[in-house]
């Protein structure tokens, strides 16, 4: 906590004045799709040096041309923004028997790695995405170089060594992360290099940056970087691993548009996939008032750094059914949903690198995977078609204590439109009757209201001062209120 406060003070001193009065970039209303290009789609076999798909730690051949070819698939799913893991030129050798296929071991921040293609290929991707009405978010590494990058040998003064680490009271920013060569962002040459890198990629037409490992980056430098992004209209998404609401709120105040809300992801995985009760989700949502910009917070079921959401069950069919529940639930929340490639078909996978299996497309899907995709596609479409779900405020309802572990109720409201959301963790179909006054909800009596989601038998009715709900097991539903 002390480290967080110190970084916040530094960032506030550097960035607040520079960003004051500038318009805020916004992704509220967007749905983001995360891609690791090497594991997505191979569009150019000519750049497949060293590819070995049988080895989960080797290059697998996916590239920028392939991603461009598959943009129609992402658009058909309903996503409106694409986040790419880094595409920089990587170190040429393996470390720990692992190739730098993931993009986080950079050697040159202003070149595209030949495995991914060329800078022209990147420009083609950006042009095609924006032509399809989709935004492009690029992953930015600002903490380190790759283990074997030439710069480590050529510019030793750029890096924190053992002496600096031992002497520092700020271990997160002054010591290596996973042994990676740790950049001294306070060094003028390093600062200028990294600020120049950001400008280079802004010039390529991206509309947002996802900043890796911000916990490990000098706060003063972050202030300068975010000020430049704000001035350029770039949306900024920070990764602070395991961030809770308080951490997200602090860094939004200090200049980031968004952070990933890891505490909500953990609560959703525990409640939806592991059946631990919905009260943990309610506890996270109850803190949303702390967030300066709750509509910008990044929400996710899984990503490239954690085991797959569907892996939470030993049984594939159960994992698929609960992923449907998770996808519908995700699309009812306030914030920016992020779907990691393959989650829309309940792809399985354990810890890294198993969670980074090659993406598979329609011609290779099972009927069950097609069904999961259909739920994902419909849930996104429902969200995008309803302004209350995509941009509305979220108000938790006072669910009776006896039901709190299996029933979560909240409303989403925007510009006179209101939606009631119900997450049901019960193992069987159930009907509930809850007095409106106990929920803190007002609604006029009327006819039965069906769920907004296709293929789901869920309904509500208001009568005699009660909210009556008929809900399927382990699922999330949404109902449009008059």
UniProtKB/TrEMBL annotation:
Cleaved signal peptide residues: 1-18
Primary enzyme class: hydrolase
Record-linked InterPro entries: Alpha_amylase (IPR006046), GH (IPR017853), GH13_cat_dom (IPR006047)
A Pfam family annotated for this UniProt entry: Alpha-amylase
GO terms of molecular function: alpha-amylase activity; cation binding
Domain spans labelled Glycosyl hydrolase family 13 catalytic: 34-383
Highest taxon listed in the record's lineage: Bacteria
The reaction(s) this protein catalyses: Endohydrolysis of (1->4)-alpha-D-glucosidic linkages in polysaccharides containing three or more (1->4)-alpha-linked D-glucose units
Keywords: Carbohydrate metabolism, Glycosidase, Hydrolase, Signal
Annotated EC: 3.2.1.1
Transmembrane segments: none
GO BP annotation list: oligosaccharide catabolic process
Stored PANTHER family: ALPHA-AMYLASE FAMILY MEMBER, NEUTRAL AND BASIC AMINO ACID TRANSPORT PROTEIN RBAT
Family recorded in the similarity comment: Belongs to the glycosyl hydrolase 13 family.
Protein name (Swiss-Prot/TrEMBL): Alpha-amylase
